[in-house]
Every structure is written in C-alpha cells, then in structure tokens.
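Minutes, structural biology subgroup

Action item carried over from last meeting: produce the structure token record for Two-component system response regulator (Streptomyces viridochromogenes). EB confirmed the sequence was re-checked against the source entry. Recorded below for completeness.
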Amino acid sequence: MTTVLIADDQPLQRFGSRMLLESQDDMTVVGEAANGSEAVRLAAELHPDVVLMDIRMPGLDGIEATRRITAAGDRTRILIVTTFDLDEYAYAGLRAGASGFLVKDAQPEELLSGIRAVATGDAVVAPSLTRRLLDAYVHHLPTDSAAETPPQEDPRLASLTDREREILTVIGRGWTNTEIATRFHLAESTVKTHVGRILAKTGSRDRIQAVILAYDTKLVEPT
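Output recorded by EB:
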C-alpha cells in the first residue's frame, strides 16, 4: 500500500486528489496539508511514501517544503504538481530534491502512474523532458558552488569509474537505458547496474537528481 500526503492550498484540489487516490486498491491518503509548513510537519509525523506537493502555497512554499522534507533524510519522495509545464518553479523543485513533476491538468492515469513510479524510486519526468526543462531555466536560477566546480574536482564524482562517468554524462543528456545500452554495446541489465551504482556513489536520490548533478558538475552544458 502506497501512503500519500496531499499538500495543496486549494481544498477542492485536495478533495479531488483524495477521491482519485482512495479509489485505488494500492493507495491510501494519510493526510492533507494546506501549506508548506503543514506539509513538513505532517511528513515528519506520518512518514508517507509520497507527497503530492503544490508549489504556490501561502507561507512556506512547496519548494522550501520539498527541500526541508528531503533534507530530513526520510524515505519520503516528493512529486511536484505545478500549473505550467516547464515552469521555472518546477526546476527549482527538482533541485530541492523532488523526484519529478506533473502538471495539474494531467490525466488521472498519469497522476496515478506518477505516484507509483515515485514510490518505487523511479523518476516521473522523462529524461528528454527533464533536459528541456533544465536547458530552459538553468540560466535563470542562482548558481551554487557545486555548479562552479570543475568535474574533476567535484567530490561527488571522485569515486566514479571512467565508464560510470561516461554513463552519468549521457544520462544528463537525456539518454534512456536502452539508448545507453545500444551506444556502449552493453546489456540493458548492465546499464541498470551502472546507473544504480552511480546513484549510490553520488548520493543521488533518483535519475532526475543524477541529471541535475551532471549539469552542476559541468559534465553537461546547457544547449
């Protein structure tokens, strides 16, 4: 059973999401939050598998709430729900530690499959769409020290093998596991093993965070 916390300042949106989720045999809503502060508090108390996180909420917004929840080190994963596709706030949410994002006009099936994917550790956003998002907004957000560090000096990359560094680079370019396997003449199961090791060695929560890491460490430059 996947447990979900809904964080949205609109009661009707929360009600609709709850009705949809509780119609599923494998999901249950464990709480609702009307703002970011409530979301942080309830996530700490309830330890949900997934938080559906709105971005624009009064007081503490969804981005900062995401940052605080993921920084706590719990297993809870965040699925950002935003009004506009390619919204710069969605990019900020991904940098804050979210495992993906969806737009609010997504089909019910997309939301349900997104929750299931996030709960199992997968990324919701397709790698190619993630790259378009990063390319569109990477110059609009403040840079951090990690973004200014040359790849060879970044400690997050120090333990990667040459092959793992190559694979991280193409993950950042939006390649799927199938494309990586074909290009490097590897079995897809081998690629999955490499990806898992990359995530573990770099401390990336999921594939989206690995894409962001590739940008931060300049393995991939915005087009």
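Discussion: The chain has two domains: 2-127, 155-217.
Next step: EB to file the record with the rest of the batch.
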